[in-house]
């Protein structure tokens, strides 16, 4: 009778605890000899976990079974060598049965050729899965506890830092590169340009020794770690996928370690990257400076760049016409045909930016988009203050019940006080002061970025304009209303 044996270990620790590959092979060979079966054909899996069935030797064994459906035995020393998930165990057993193979556990003494063996298989599979989930739950709880205390780093160090004895320490050489990256970003350079500089001008690699890419640069410069804050639990595993967790589930420890960047610079960089995010695939296209910004005042749809051709018989030449045309009309037929000429609109916007950059402080009253934090009404702010009080009381109750330590209570108290001070300040500020301040902020930003706006490099000009403008609304093809970006 053909016998396929599957020994497996996932870590060196298992070998130390008596689950070594050699010992498994000996046990299986002895069991087969005692049962009077053929010598087993081994498929030895070294260094793979049983959390899923994506394992090379297991795959090879399954292919072999499919190719030799005359029947036989699949044997392991224990059920958890095959899998720790009940669903995978049942599916594998179904596969074995399909090709006339029975599964046998040498140590646990059962096989699936009998009803009793199949029952025991399901029961042991449930226990194995329960044990794995409990272990996973305990590990997660322990890591969350360590993260909340902030005493020991439980993640890999990001570029610019080293971890020594469980604490963050600045890596001087890497931090100098990090600061250069921040300077380039604040000057308006995109992540692709910064990645090129790092790879070919600076000749530096990532912490893992890889080439930099625009995605890696963009995500790195937005990491809270650079500003001295520790943030944990931003992602979680759901099945086989990694998904983002709700911000309410994040573990945040402010001022946890020495920063490489100031909070102010870090916030500006995040704002820059978030503003470019809206451009999408049109960002790298220099044909239209205002891609993604122009909006129809009638139907609220985007007005995207569109080029038309015409032929002049008098001049015997083809003419190209660049326009911003209403998408509501072009694609959905819910608006009427109207457009803005590209060159006229772009010239108008650039001239307006020049005027604002040269204006004196306090002389402007612009329409400025309000950041989310300042657009909340007073009742909402008061409601949030009340919730903070309740939140703080819960922390105190938890401390009194010995559920959290005094250190945890102190961190929670500091965080709540910071949020309370910010909300109280928002209540005290008058709307008129905010509007004037917002206009002055736009003026300062326009002054600082004017050279980039006027650059002959249209991509650089496009980036600078997006830092200043939130939306350009066109009505009747000629009326222009600009909403400036709040800071």
UniProtKB/TrEMBL annotation:
SUPFAM superfamilies: Resolvase-like (SSF53041). PROSITE patterns: RECOMBINASE_DNA_BIND (PS51737), RECOMBINASES_3 (PS51736). It comes from the Bacteria. Residues 158-279 form the Recombinase domain. Residues 2-150 form the Resolvase/invertase-type recombinase catalytic domain. This is Recombinase family protein. It comes from Paenibacillus dokdonensis.
């Amino acid at each position: 009778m053909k016998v396929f044996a599957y020994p497996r270990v996932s870590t060196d620790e298992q070998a130390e605890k008596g689950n070594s590959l050699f010992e498994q092979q000996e046990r299986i060979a002895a069991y087969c000899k005692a049962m009077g079966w053929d010598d087993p054909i081994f498929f030895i899996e070294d260094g793979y976990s049983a959390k899923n069935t994506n394992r090379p030797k297991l795959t090879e064994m399954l292919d072999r079974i499919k190719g030799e459906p005359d029947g036989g035995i699949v044997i392991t020393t224990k059920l958890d060598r095959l899998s720790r998930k009940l669903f995978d165990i049942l599916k594998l057993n179904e596969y074995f049965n399909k090709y006339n193979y029975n599964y046998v556990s040498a140590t646990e003494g059962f096989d699936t050729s009998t009803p009793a063996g199949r029952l025991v298989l399901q029961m042991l599979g449930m226990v194995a899965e329960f044990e794995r989930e409990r272990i996973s739950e305990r590990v997660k709880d322990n890591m969350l506890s360590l993260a909340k205390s902030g005493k020991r780093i439980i993640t890999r160090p990001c570029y610019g830092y080293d971890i020594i004895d469980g604490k963050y320490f600045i890596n001087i050489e890497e931090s100098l590169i990090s600061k250069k990256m921040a300077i380039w970003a604040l000057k308006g350079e995109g992540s692709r340009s910064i990645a090129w500089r790092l790879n070919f001008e600076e000749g530096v690699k990532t912490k893992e020794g890889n080439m930099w890419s625009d995605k890696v640069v963009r995500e790195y410069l937005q990491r809270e770690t650079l500003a001295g804050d520790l943030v944990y639990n931003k992602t979680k595993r759901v099945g086989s996928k990694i998904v983002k967790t709700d911000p309410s589930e994040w573990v945040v420890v402010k001022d946890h370690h020495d920063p490489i960047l100031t909070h102010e610079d870090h916030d500006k960089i995040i704002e820059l990257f978030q503003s470019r995010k809206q451009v999408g695939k049109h960002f790298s296209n220099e044909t239209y400076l205002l891609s993604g910004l122009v909006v129809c005042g009638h139907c609220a749809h985007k007005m995207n760049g569109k080029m038309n051709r015409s032929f002049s018989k008098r001049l015997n030449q083809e003419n190209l016409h660049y326009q911003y045309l209403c998408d509501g009309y072009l694609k959905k037929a819910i608006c009427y045909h109207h457009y803005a000429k590209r060159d006229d609109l772009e010239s108008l916007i650039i001239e307006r930016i020049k005027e604002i950059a040269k204006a004196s402080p306090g002389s402007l009253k612009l329409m400025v988009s309000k950041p989310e934090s300042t657009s909340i009404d007073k009742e909402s702010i008061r409601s949030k203050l009340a919730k903070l009080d309740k939140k703080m009381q819960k922390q105190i109750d938890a401390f009194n019940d010995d559920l959290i330590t005094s250190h945890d209570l102190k961190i929670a108290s500091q965080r709540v006080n910071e949020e309370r001070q910010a909300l109280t300040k928002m209540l005290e500020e008058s709307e008129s002061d905010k509007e004037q301040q917002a206009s002055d902020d736009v003026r300062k930003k326009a002054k600082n970025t004017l050279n980039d706006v006027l650059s002959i490099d249209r991509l650089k000009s496009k980036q600078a304009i997006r830092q200043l403008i939130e939306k350009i609304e066109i009505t009747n093809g000629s009326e222009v209303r600009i909403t400036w970006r709040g800071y």
